Amino acid sequence: MTQKIPTTSADFDHTRIIERPDGFYWQDDADGREYGPFQTMLEAAADMQLADDEAAAEEAGADDLRDTGDLLGVPDWVDPDTGQLADDERTRTDDH
What we know:
Order of helices and strands: EEEH
Shape: elongated
Oligomer: single chain
Helix content: 25-40%
């Protein structure tokens, strides 16, 4: 019985799966880091998908935090010297 190997979408063009004697690895071309070994290619592909899903969830979480801050009226600028949130009453000036 043969297993059907799933096709990957264009979202995974920056990754590749490598077969070595000790198992399968997947590599992200963005940082060159390898993940593995996995017993099968399917396990490596599943881990690759999971890592992509987690990255998307983190990115969405940051957007949700910004949106919530906007709804509550929390300023998005923090004074780098004091750590205090910006005041609407004063004009912000940056030294360049």
